Hints:
Low-confidence stretches: 1-12, 639-643, 708-720, 813-821
CATH superfamily of the domain at 406-413 and 422-633: Leucine-rich Repeat Variant
Helix content: over 70%
Strand content: under 5%
Amino acid sequence: MNFLKSGIKTVLGAPEPGQQPSVAETVERLVERASNSTLLEDRRDACRALKALSRKYRLEVGAQGLDTLRQILELDRADNETINYALDTLNNIVSPSQFEEEEDKPNIPMNIGDQFTEMFIKDPHNIQLVLDLLDEHDFRVRLSTVQLLISLLTNRTKDIQEIILDKPMGVSKMMDLLGDTREVIRNETLLLLIKLTKGNANIQKIVAFENAFDRLFEIVSSEGYSDGGIIVEDCLLLMLNLLKNNSSNINFFKEGSYIQKMLPMFNIPEESEEVGWSPQKVSNVHCMLQLVRTLVSPSNSAQIISNCQKIMKNVGLLDALCNILMASGVPADILTETINSVGEVVRGDASNQEFIGNVIAPSYPPRPAIIVLLMSMVNEKQPFSLRCAVLYCFQCYLYQNEVSQASLVQTLLPSSSDVSNLTSGQILCGGLFSSDVLSNWFSAVALMHALIDNTTQKEQLLRVLLATNIGSNPVSLLHQCTTLLQQTTKLQSKVALLMLLSQWMSSCPAAVSAFLQVPGGVGYLVNQTCSNEHDDNEYLLQGMSAFLLAICINFNDDSVQTYSKESLKQLLVKRIGVEVFTAKLSEVCKHELYNKAAKHPQLRVGCPVDVLIDYEFCRLFKSLEGVLSQSLETRAVNGGGAGEADLEQYKALIRQQDARLHELVHQLDALAQQAQGLQSALNDSLAANSLLKDENTLLKAQVSANSIPTTQPAATQPPLPDPKLGEYEERIEQLNDEVTRLNGEMTRLNEEVSRLKGELKAAKDEEKNSAEEMEKLKKDQDDLLYLLANYDSKTNEYKLRLLQLGEKVEDDEPTDEENLT
């Protein structure tokens, strides 16, 4: 510090006695001298003094001297020492980190370097001045220039990238520094290029076509590949920047035969177990494994992935990765990343998948590498990240490969082969029903990947039988999964089983039918969907239960009469409601872990608690959610509900009875009209008969008056008959006969009317009884479905209590008649 003070006194002169200049005044004088002095030595001394002050008094030096320092870079290029002082001062001013000298100054903003960077790059010509200094061969000038550019890029990456892109030969000048024989400059240039290429595809392409890969591999080779120092890691980080999300550079890397040059990085000497792995070697190999994964990342195009996978197998890179996989003494994080890399190298490539399936682990007895990996996955003592990596690798092994999927399912089916050998299916079943929650989740998801887009294996898996207890009848795997779903209280196990069943039953009516025959399965889903728990994870469970219930409806072939498609729809509408059901379904995609899982096929979580949802389930949910919701809503609008067939039957019966009723009414009306006509005729006949009787009486009176005897001497003569009297008597007899006939007809008609009225009343009563019976049947059916669901729930609760008490419980499949009763 005394030397610094003496130097400043030399530049500024001694102050007057009793007056000590402030820092701002000192900086002002130095800036004025650096700007206006005619002697180069004076300007150089002023720059030296400003450099000394810039670490502790960055704010004062930057505020007053930024323009002067830029001026020096432009006008004093001939003097390397002055230029070096100016560059170092600028680097101190814009430095993104805080100096130790500034720690006792809390009033200094934390982003002071970023602010000065913004001021410096307002004029893009300033960046050109710095770039031009890269041509200087002087060690200190070139090194300070590179360091200044690193600081500027750290503060304002995108702005500096755009400016450099506009400057001719800007990137080329930086690339030339990789050939500098002075390692310090070369190493700093690597750091500069890592900053420069971050997230800018155009600069990445320029750097790649400036022979960057050749130069980088030369450096890696000269440094000793994986045994090299941190320079190897910097080279690999730069390659990662050039290749990540840049298909053009990946094609260039592939076609330039650079994949072969990666192979020496994975040559692990046999004595490495005794020697051990240094931390730097671990970092180097880790970066190289990330480079491999970048080339075959699922986010790349299918063509690029396929080509890179084939090249990696042909040049022996896949074999080298498998050697690391089976080697002993490999650090856990390297082993984990190697498993991930092997998975992505074989993902979707049948030849590579067959290769990894045939790799034999150096164990006793010898086992396939896949078996050894699965054993690690279900071992709760293994590191969490390693178990996740094994799951991802196994998923890649099954991806779009019906042969490997069929092989897995085949190991679960009854076979006459040697059962002493441990199979992948046995490991997964053991993990599926183990007490370790993560083993449950990993095994269920692994098994689920064997069923993706493979209806044949879904049906084959229904044949898998498990012996749950000694002496008890075996049950199907689906039956046991459904029972476990109802009994477990662990969130991750529930979610895993729901994902497995959803994948299994989608597009597979046989699996849906088997699920519907499991006691309590439907009741559990309904109760879970109706739950009113207010928690993100509970919302997720409710939505996944609703999703599985919708799958049961949509892919139902009506082979189970108790739970036909229509009865399940009616149960959904009555117990849940279409709107509530759709809302529950939409809760799944709102969950934070769902959105995280949907972004990448690999499970990327930091702790076991976050293990919940798998990528392939997200794909299944996205593909079916809209279809299932729309199907249910459409049927609800169209009056769809359970018991629709029965309702139509009753409606047809009512229509028939109504038609018969109308027919009887028409007949009754016709007979009433006929009876009315006959009554009118009868009345006429009676009136005529009465008239004739009166005439007959009158005639008889006249005849009696005419037949009185006279006194004559001659013999008495009989009276002559009146001809009209005979006619009247005959007419009266005819009318009496007609009246008798009409009375008989009237009696018959009255009896017919009475009979028709009775039939009409009976028809109306029958119609009323049918309507009442239909309403009663509807109510009874609703009550029956509700009681069945409650009965299933209580039965499972009692079974669980018996199991907890140590009692043996057997599941008896109810018959259709018992269910109906």
